[in-house]
Amino acid sequence: MFSKIKAFFSLRRARNEFVVARAADLLKSGWSPDYLAQEFTRINKKVWGELTKPEYLWTVEKVKNHLKTCPKIIYCAFSGGKMVGTLTNIRTTERDLAKNKTWLQKTGNGYLTTHVPSGNLGFGVDLSVTRHAPKKLADKLVLAAIFDGVMGNGLKSVNLGARIPSYHKHKDMPVRDYVHGKRANRKPLDPELYFYMKDGFEIVEIIPDYMDDPDSLDYGVLIRWSNPLYKVTKMLPILKPLIRGVSKLIFLRIPEKASGM
C-alpha cells in the first residue's frame, strides 16, 4: 500500500517540467471546449494516426462529447504552454467491464456513451503523449489521474486494456506465455506492460480481438490498479474530497491560456 502512495509524490519533482490539468477545471476557468477538443484530437492523431484505424481515433465531435460526459476524469499535460499529452477515462461497473470485451464496446465506439457516473471502477480509455514531450510525462500523467480520479473518488480500481505491441516479434510463443513471461531482469517481456506494471498494475485477463492492432496480433490485456484506500474511503467518505483537494493543490495546475483560443 505505502509503496503505491509513495510513487505519487514523485510528481512534485516534475512540476517545473510540465503542467497536468483536469479538463473540468480548464472548462470552469473559461477555456473553450472547441479549442480543447481540437487539441485532444490533434495529439491523439499525431500519436496514433499511423498505428491504428480511423474508428479508434478521436474526432472533434467525439471529444466534445467526452468533455460533456466526464470532464472531471479527463486530463491533459502542457509543456512550454503547449498541450503535449492527454489521458481520458470513464467510470464503469464490474458487470459492464466483463460484458464489454473490445475497446469499441467498452468505449461506446469512442464516444464514451458507456460512462456510468455512479460506477465504482475506472476504465482508462486513451493515453496519448507526443514524442517530444518531457521525459516521464506519460508516467506522471497516469499517476496524477490515479491519485485524483481513482483515489479521490473512492473507486475500487482503475482498469485498462493494454496493448502488447512487441508480441508480433514473438508470435511463435503462446500469448499467455508472452504476457506472463519475464526477462532475465524480471521485467515483463512487453515494454508497454512494463510501463504500467512498474506503477502497480496487475494482469487480469487476456482479450482476443480487443482491437485491430497488427503489432499486438489484435490482443489486449486487461490490467488493473487496485486502490489501497478503497475500504478506508468507503468507511470515511469525507476523505474523498480531502484527497481531491490535496491532488488539486499539489499535482494539478491550470496553465496560462494559449494565444488564439
Detailed description of the structure:
- This protein is of the alpha+beta class.
- 36% of the residues lie in helices and 19% in strands.
- The chain is built from eleven helices and seven strands.
- The protein has helices at 2-8, 23-28, 33-48, 60-69, 94-99, 103-106, 137-151, 175-180, 191-197, 230-235, 239-250; strands at 19-22, 74-79, 82-92, 121-129, 157-162, 202-207, 220-226.
- The chain has a seven-stranded mixed beta sheet with strand order 1-2-3-4-5-7-6.
- Strand 4, helix 7 and strand 5 (157-162) form a beta-alpha-beta unit.
- Helix 3 (33-48) crosses helix 4 and helix 7 (137-151) packs antiparallel against helix 11.
- The longest helix has 16 residues, at 33-48.
- It is globular and about 55 Å long.
- The termini are far apart.
- The mean pLDDT is 91.
